[in-house]
Each structure stands twice: as structure tokens, then as C-alpha cells.
What does this fold into?
Amino acid sequence: MKRVLRADVQDMHGYAVQPSAGMVKVDTMENPFPLPPALRRALGERLAEVALNRYPAERIDELRAALARHARMPEGCDLMLGNGSDELISLLTLAADVPGNTILAPLPGFVMYAMSAKLQGLPFVGVPLTADFELDGPAMLAAIREHRPAIVWLAYPNNPTGSLWDDAAIEAIIEAAPGLVVMDEAYQPFAARDSLDRLRRHPHVLVMRTMSKFGLAGVRIGYLMGRTALVRELDKLRPPFNVSVLNCEAALFALEHVDEYERQAATIRAERARVFAALAAVPGVKVFPSEANMLLARVADPAAVFAGMKARKVLVKNVAGLHPLLAGCLRITIGTPEENTQMLAAFEAALKESQ
Ligand code: PMP
It folds into this structure.
């Protein structure tokens, strides 16, 4: 058959989602809590009033302002919206401009940084974390000196490890980087620290967030904050009307009911501590501290434990094959208290079976 697509596209694997019907779904860091029925009805009424015949306009600016207030964005900054932060990763990669246009990130990390670079024909350099999933500061600085990256991605907390990086290491990276440094704060609702203050101090730093982990993964709203002049330039790359009127209205509604989401995030943080302690108490399991809504657990036979959990209708993510540092690791999203109890029972049973 005649080839009509780029060979590198044909060779690549797309972003895959595991089938999950009927399962306890703890594989993709979603917030497990639905909105209470009264709020769902109120949201339905709001969405019914949205003018679907019009392109998104003023309400989008209201959403940008509401997100800036919600995030406590510093003065002198602006905010750009994406159809999820995945779109922003792709747009930022388009804007890269330091000779060579290399994209650099610690590994293991979020797969879309490398995938966007590859799709746009840019070189990607991954710098391994240390064995306990800390940033390897000297190795990062050496890679920055060698490759002069146009963009350094720092997920903070990191996916899939849940780590928050050492402050001095981040500052040294920002000082050394010749291009942009993007702090990807997708998991900020569950973390003890954030990077907003770095926007005040460093003109080439951007902070990216999303409403996905907060409770709106299906709504697809990501946002990027940075110095106004920089964000205005980046905004030129955004496809017009990239956020739908329905998504915009749902996001505005969520921000009006932020207390509900903050209660949910607090429950998830408390459950993370409970699940951590329960996993850590199981002989033969190593669990790593996390500031995100997921935990990494290392076992002797991850494929067998994954399969045993799946047979018990609990879906986690087997990340063992993604990077040598992740050998033996399963990534487990924190669910509702009931789901976590079910997950722990399935984990222990599957582990025993695998031994
Ligand atoms: N950044 C990180 C670190 C992530 O883990 C994810 C999704 N898992 C994203 C960005 C993308 O989030 P979204 O496109 O839903 O905003």
C-alpha cells in the first residue's frame, strides 16, 4: 500500500487507555468523587442556557480571570488556556527556540513531553532520576550544559513517582537553563508546595496546571501562567476557540463550588496516608512517598500482581516496563475510601498468589 503518513508516526505508539468497564478504576489519577446530585442538577441547568450556536467568547475571559484568582496568580502575569494541559505541552513544544531545540526532562516522567517533541521532530533528552526518585541535580546541570535545551519540563509533583523536587536543585536548573523551564503542577491539589513564587523571580519560568486532577478530567481545561509578555506571545500558537463553551461553563461552575472540590482533595490526601501505611506494612512491598494522588508500589512480580488485581476487578497501571528505574512498580491512584479498601484487599490477595 502507498505510504501517505510520516514513517515516524507509523512507528510510534499512541497514548493508550486501558478498558475499565465494571472495574475499580485506579489507573489514571482521576478524582474518584462525583459531584453531589443537587450540584449536578444545578450544573445541568447552567449548561442548558449555554449558546451552542456561538463561538466561545467573553465567558472564556471570565474563566481565565476566575482561574487566575483561584490559583492566586502573581501580578504581572497572564494565563493561557489549553484543551487539557496535553494541548499546552504540544503548543509549547512548537514555540521552542534555542539552537537545536532540544527538549529535556527527568525520567521516568510524564510521557507527553517526549511524545510531543518526537512528533515535532525535536530531539528529546531524558535525565534519569536517582534510585529513590529524587532529581539528580548534577546530572541535570551537566545535561543542560551539554544540550542547551529550549525547554526543561519539571513535573512538580512528578508522574509516575509523586516526587516533589529539592528546592535548591530546581533553582540551579532555572539559573542554568538557556530557554524555558516549565513547572508542570498537574498534581498541585495534593502537594505541600508549589512554584508560583518562581514566576515572580524568573522571567523564563512557566507554571502549568490543569483542572483534571481537581475533579474535571473529562472537561479538558489546562492553563499556563507566566510573565504577561511571554504568555501573549505563546497565546498566538493557540488554535482559536480551543476550549468549548460547555467545558468553559462547567469549569466556571466548578470554581464557584471550589469548597466541594477542596473537601474531596483533602479526603484524597488523607486516604493517600492510609493507603501508604497499609502498603508499607505488607511484607515484600516497597512503597514510595508521594505528594500526588497516586502511589508507586514495588513488588517482585508486577505482571502477576497486576493480573491478579485485574481478575479481582481492580485496575491499576503496571509501569514496570516503562523505565529501568521503575522495575517492579505498579502505579496506584487513590480512589474513594471504599475503593481503596477494595484495592488493598485485591493487592494483598494477588501478591500472595504471585509468591
Ligand atoms: N502533566 C502531568 C504531569 C500529568 O500526569 C498529566 C496527566 N496524567 C498531564 C499533565 C495532562 O493532564 P490534562 O491533559 O488532563 O490536563
